[in-house]
């Protein structure tokens, strides 16, 4: 079995933003261990992280070794159905310095078990959201990243820090922001379980569906090209901007924007995905739906 390891840079880079897209290297566990042991690959200034490895057999082609890991996961001591919970678990295996940028998960709550190595979790309450500047681009249905590359510079966001050691269990309440980094010189491994809260999450799921719909509509070539060729889309603070002469190629959903038209489209999608806009849209959508019955 080979797992997709992100190869990140400890020194930070342009990819170290809210929507990091580190190169991926497929490695077996033996290759990963030997990389860490020899420090040849990666070099010391980089880190390796196999993150978000879903153990749900339906999420990826069935893998006998992942199935073996799944069989050994047992959350029943916490009252969860053994089989169901194991299928909903996710595996995280990283080398020294590996990390996950600041984000919150849109649904449910989270339980994390530290298997080996240690990790520092920095958590912020949902009330600090306005300080942490959520971004919705690229659109991803359940992980909402922060635009901040240095959240430590916002102490008023009330960070809570905890270090997980092997055998520790962490409960992450719904909508709490978190940033996670591996500590020390050895590898770390944790397993987590996102527990759905269907009643509380119903409104978020509707909002997310509408966001997805808007992103797809706005990113669909003819509609976006037509819309963005209108002169009023040119930035107000850039009156001399060259007119749009040819229909712009819209960015693929989930891609960062490049040229001016893509930036306008990106800003438009971002604005449309704003929580307040979505709340109004969800309410109006439900009313319209009821009226149409
Ligand atoms: O362990 C990590 O690096 C991140 C885990 C995480 O974001 C989560 O469990 O929601």
Could you say which small molecules are bound to this protein?
Answer: 2-oxoglutaric acid
How many helices in DSSP terms?
A: 8
| Biggest sheet overview | 7 strands, antiparallel
Order of helices and strands: EEHEHHEEEEHEEEEEHHHH
At the fold tier of CATH, the topology name of the largest domain is Jelly Rolls
Strand % is 25-35%
Biggest sheet strand line-up: 2-1-3-4-12-6-10
The overall pLDDT, averaged over residues, is 79
Can you tell me the number of structural domains?
A: 2
CATH level-four homologous superfamily name of the largest domain: Cupin
Question: Would you mind describing this structure in some detail?
Answer:
By secondary structure, the protein is of the alpha+beta class. Helix content is 30%, strand content 26%. Helix 5 crosses helix 8. About 9% of the residues have low confidence. Bound molecules: 2-oxoglutaric acid (AKG). Keywords: Cytoplasm. Pfam families: Cupin_8 (PF13621).
Would you spell out the secondary-structure blueprint of this structure?
Layout: E1 2-9, E2 24-28, H1 29-38, E3 46-54, H2 64-71, H3 82-87, E4 89-94, E5 99-105, E6 109-116, E7 118-124, H4 129-132, E8 143-145, E9 160-164, E10 169-172, E11 177-183, E12 188-195, H5 198-219, H6 221-228, H7 260-272, H8 275-291
Antiparallel strand pairs: 1-2, 1-3, 3-4, 4-12, 5-8, 5-11, 6-10, 6-12, 7-9, 7-11
Helix pairs in contact: 5-8
